[in-house]
TrEMBL record, chains A, B:
<dbReference type="InterPro" id="IPR012318">
    <property type="entry name" value="HTH_CRP"/>
</dbReference>
<keyword id="KW-0804">Transcription</keyword>
<keyword id="KW-0238">DNA-binding</keyword>
<dbReference type="InterPro" id="IPR050397">
    <property type="entry name" value="Env_Response_Regulators"/>
</dbReference>
<dbReference type="InterPro" id="IPR036390">
    <property type="entry name" value="WH_DNA-bd_sf"/>
</dbReference>
<feature type="domain" description="Cyclic nucleotide-binding">
    <location>
        <begin position="43"/>
        <end position="109"/>
    </location>
</feature>
<protein>
    <submittedName>
        <fullName>CRP/FNR family transcriptional regulator</fullName>
    </submittedName>
</protein>
<dbReference type="GO" id="GO:0003700">
    <property type="term" value="F:DNA-binding transcription factor activity"/>
</dbReference>
<dbReference type="InterPro" id="IPR000595">
    <property type="entry name" value="cNMP-bd_dom"/>
</dbReference>
<dbReference type="GO" id="GO:0003677">
    <property type="term" value="F:DNA binding"/>
</dbReference>
<dbReference type="InterPro" id="IPR036388">
    <property type="entry name" value="WH-like_DNA-bd_sf"/>
</dbReference>
<dbReference type="InterPro" id="IPR014710">
    <property type="entry name" value="RmlC-like_jellyroll"/>
</dbReference>
<feature type="domain" description="HTH crp-type">
    <location>
        <begin position="156"/>
        <end position="229"/>
    </location>
</feature>
<dbReference type="Pfam" id="PF13545">
    <property type="entry name" value="HTH_Crp_2"/>
</dbReference>
<keyword id="KW-0805">Transcription regulation</keyword>
<dbReference type="GO" id="GO:0005829">
    <property type="term" value="C:cytosol"/>
</dbReference>
<dbReference type="Pfam" id="PF00027">
    <property type="entry name" value="cNMP_binding"/>
</dbReference>
Length: 239, 239
DNA sequence: CGTCGTATTGACCTTTCTCAAGTGGGGTGG
DNA sequence: CCACCCCACTTGAGAAAGGTCAATACGACG
């Protein structure tokens, strides 16, 4: 286990609290003293460290400050990746209904995450309509995202899926104010392939092809978007 | 437009209020007089009638009492189906965050749906922790369902997708107490194919093949499940 | 500077799509 | 009441996308 109060690594990208997915409720000045009891701020996890295991009792959400996580389940002995989570994202909303975690959560890189206790958050929801609206908004957004993702993954071919995936990465960072066209992938090809329902070879081939089209520049885990609008067009999404 | 207070058709399958997705908050005895102002009970829609169009201002959820709906968006001029909704399902949770409907909602058959006003529901959430927990539970369940669906549709081949789809239909009805192995599809092959990201021809071929395996018996829109456990196994899900 | 794990590339095979023709059932008009 | 028609569905043959297996290249790390 890691040191609880390990400081933020200046090298890695992180969200300022104002841009975090929980937004306004994360700002101490908005909620004064109530906040401290709800959030155990900034716990650090090492690369490949498992935060929770599928089936564990649900107690707290995780909100990523810096780094990246993946969630997965084991089906027939093989890992099936459910999602990737980046700075500002919240994990655990699906667990409210089951009272336990439905996925294993693992750190892809060194990650700093805020812990948010469920019980205490619920108490705040009743007390403050601002918190209530924030949480409803968050859950609704989550549902909308999943709808879009299902559309994407049922309708798109391999090339479009991969383009959509990179667009998603770009958008996730952009939403938090980080608009660089250079992206460092925190996951390996196998994880991407697994998540998109493709094979490693197909992912590799398509990255090469997209590079030859002048849309991307790929070098290992580093991707540079050369033509953003072409990438979005390939993903069949409106920019 | 239809007669608002058209009575429930006895022929079609419907959920009793106790099994509706909004569950306890739909039972008048639990919420007494507050309920009537929130729910405009049982409005009827004709087959192919459009309830709301993508982009319309969001005001109310729809909870299906009987019949079936589909939601879709138009991408590049073609319809892309987002989901099918059956008795007990609630539509509109994704709209909380956008304040407008993200999909067009259309009736697949004659459908009876309860309308639930958003503003009034939110007021109830603050007043009653029971309502609050019900709604959080509902949204969480929704997120969990989408997670599972994404897994399903990114990892499965055509045969598994279709089996999973029929399992889902069966399960949806079973959850509401309707455990018959005979299912009448309310959607056409084209809709199923669209939704699953397949072609009509593939859907047709797989239905035929699955029938030859003795798992299903297909006759137009009528499907009879001959071997439920084999079907779930084909869908790669635990029963 | 070698080693191990990850990524790329190539040849071949399976699945699904595409295009095209044929079938069948429900509704309408004679 | 029957025949016809239309639309939804089924079936078949060839094409394309993606998967599989195998060899090779790269790169981080000791």
């Amino acid at each position: 286990m890691q040191d609880i109060s390990k400081p933020l690594r200046s090298k890695s990208y992180s969200v300022p609290c104002e841009l975090c997915s929980i937004g306004s409720i994360c700002i101490p000045m908005a909620l004064n003293n109530t906040l401290e009891s709800v959030l155990n701020r900034k716990r650090s996890f090492a690369k490949n460290e498992i935060l929770v295991t599928e089936g564990d009792e649900f107690q707290r959400f995780y909100i990523i400050h810096s780094g990246a996580l993946k969630t997965y389940v084991i089906i027939n002995g093989t890992e099936q990746i459910n999602g990737f989570y980046l700075p500002g994202d919240i994990i655990g909303l699906d667990s409210i209904t089951t009272h336990k975690y439905n996925n294993t959560i693992k750190a892809l890189t060194t990650t700093l995450a805020c812990e948010l206790k469920y019980d205490e958050l619920m108490a705040l929801v009743t007390k403050s309509t601002q918190v209530r609206d924030t949480i409803f908004n968050l859950m609704s957004q989550n549902i909308l995202n999943y709808q879009k993702m299902i559309l994407a993954y049922s309708q798109k071919n391999a090339e479009e899926k991969l383009a959509a995936f990179i667009c998603w990465l770009y958008t996730q960072y952009a939403k938090r104010g980080h608009t660089s066209l250079s992206i460092k992938l925190s996951m390996c090809r196998a994880d991407i392939a697994n998540y998109l329902g493709l094979t490693i070879e197909t992912v590799s081939r398509i990255l090469t092809r997209t590079q030859e089209l002048g849309i991307l520049s790929v070098r290992g885990k580093y991707i540079c978007i050369k033509d953003l609008s072409a990438l979005f067009q390939l993903a069949a999404e409106k920019i």
